[in-house]
C-alpha cells in the first residue's frame, strides 16, 4: 500500500494495487462537524481530477467532495449510507468515500504528502 | 476566511475562545457556531439537560415614556397595552404593506417596555419604531447589555440557586428583575429552542461572571449551530430565512401574535392585507416539511409537485433529536395541508417529502397549567 497523499481540497488518496481509495482528511471531518448524510458516486462513472463527485452533509451544511485524480469510480462505501458518522470517527480509514481506478497512477504522486498537507492546512488558518 | 477583524465581539468573546468556540461571522458579530463537543452533542445537551448560549448580538432596547405601549401598537399588531407588568410577549413589527420588518419580544417592566430584537434587524427596527413614536415616548438602545439564553429541562435547577428572586415561580413568558450570581439581571422565561428556559439580560461587564456561574452548575456551552437545529425542530421561524419584509403574518403562520382587539380595530400597518388574507386565505403558507430518508434539504431548495414548482424550502437541516432531516418552507396554500406529498429538488434529484405540523417535537414550556399540575 502506498503512502497517503492529500489534495488541496482536503481529500486523501491511498493506492493499493490498481485501485485508489479516497476519503476526506481528519482536518476536513473536524471542520465539518457531525456528518449526517453522504451522497456517493455510482461505480463506472468517469471522473476528472477536481470534479465534484460526492457530497458530505453535516448538521449545518452540505459540502462537495472532489475527485483528487482522474479515473473510473470502482466502488462506493455503502457503510457510510447507513452510518455517516464513520466519517467523523475514522475519516482516514473506515470512513472512506469511494475508490477510483486511476487513469494515470503518477497523478497520485503529484499530490501532497502528509507534511505538505499539514503546512497547507496551517496556511489556510 | 471572513475578515474577522471587522466583526464586532460580544462581552463573552474571551470566554468563547477559552472554551474552544469556533468563531464565525453572524450579523456583523464574531459568534461561536459550535464548541469542541459539536453541534449534535450541544443540541442533545439542551434537550436532556441545559445549554448556555451567548445571544448578546441581539438588540436590546427600552421604550420609555407615558403611552409607550400604545405607541408601540402603531407598528405592531400585537396586544401591548393589555400586557401586564412582569409579562413578555412575542410580536411582529410590520410595514405598511403587511410585510414583517422583524419579529421581537416585548416585556412590560412596569415603568417601561423592554424589547429584544434580531441582531440583523436591530438598526432597522430602532429606526422604524423611533419614526412612529409620539413626543414623550423614546426608544433607547441598550448596547451596554449582554444577553444569555439558558435552555433545557435542567435550566431551572441550574439558575434557581444563583438567583435572588424565585425563578421557579416564573411561568412561561414571565419576567423577573433579580440579581443572578450577584449581577443585576432581567430574567424572562422564554427562548428559541422549544424547551423550558430563561433569557438573562445583564450589564456587559457582568456577563462573564454570570456565564461562568451557569457553566459551573452544569450548563453546556452551545453555539449558533445548535441554536439553529433546536429552533428548527421546534418549528420556530428565523428572520431573514423563513420570514422577511415580503412575508405577512398570515403567510408566516404567526397569526397567534395578532391581538384580539387589534383584529377588531384593524389599526396596525398592513391591516388591509392581513384582513384580506385571513378572510380569503394567503397565496402561500409557511409549513413544516419532513423529507423521507436521511438527506437534508437546505434553504432555497425548490419544492415541486408532479414536476411543477409550488414553493421553496426556507430553512432545512438535520434534526439531531428526531434523528432525521427537517425543514420548513413557503408553499402555495393549495398544497399546504398537513401530509401533502411534495418533492424537494436537491442537486437535480427529487427527494420525496411531506408537509407536517410544527413543532416537530412538542414544546416543553412552563405553562401555567403545568405549574398547577406540578
If you had to describe this structure to a student in words, what would you say it looks like?
The complex is a heterodimer of chains A (125) and B (374). Chain A has 125 residues and is of the alpha+beta class. Chain A has one domain (5-106): OB fold (Dihydrolipoamide Acetyltransferase, E2P), CATH 2.40.50. Chain A has five helices and nine strands. In chain A, strands 1-2-3-9-8-5 form a six-stranded antiparallel β-sheet. Chain A is globular, with a radius of gyration of 13 Å. The mean pLDDT of chain A is 96. Chain B has 374 residues and is an alpha+beta fold. Among the domains of chain B are: 4-58 and 144-233, 2-Layer Sandwich (Gyrase A, domain 2); 283-374, Elongation Factor Tu (Ef-tu), domain 3 (Beta Barrel), CATH 2.40.30.110. Helix content of chain B is 21%, strand content 32%. Chain B contains ten helices and 19 strands. Chain B has helices at 13-18, 39-48, 68-72, 122-132, 155-159, 207-216, 224-233, 262-265, 271-280, 368-373; strands at residues 22-26, 29-34, 51-54, 59-64, 88-94, 100-108, 113-117, 138-141, 145-151, 175-180, 183-188, 197-203, 220-221, 284-291, 302-305, 308-319, 324-332, 341-346, 349-356. In chain B, helix 2 crosses helix 7. Chain B is globular and about 60 Å long. Chain A: One of its GO terms (cellular component) is cytosol. Chain A: It comes from Muricoccus pecuniae. Chain A: Residues 19-101 form the Lipoyl-binding domain. Chain A: Its cofactor is (R)-lipoate. Chain A: The glycine cleavage system is composed of four proteins: P, T, L and H.
Short overview:
The complex is a heterodimer of chains A (125) and B (374). Chain A is built from 5 helices and 9 strands; from the N terminus they run βββαβββββααβαα. Chain A has 125 residues and is of the alpha+beta class.
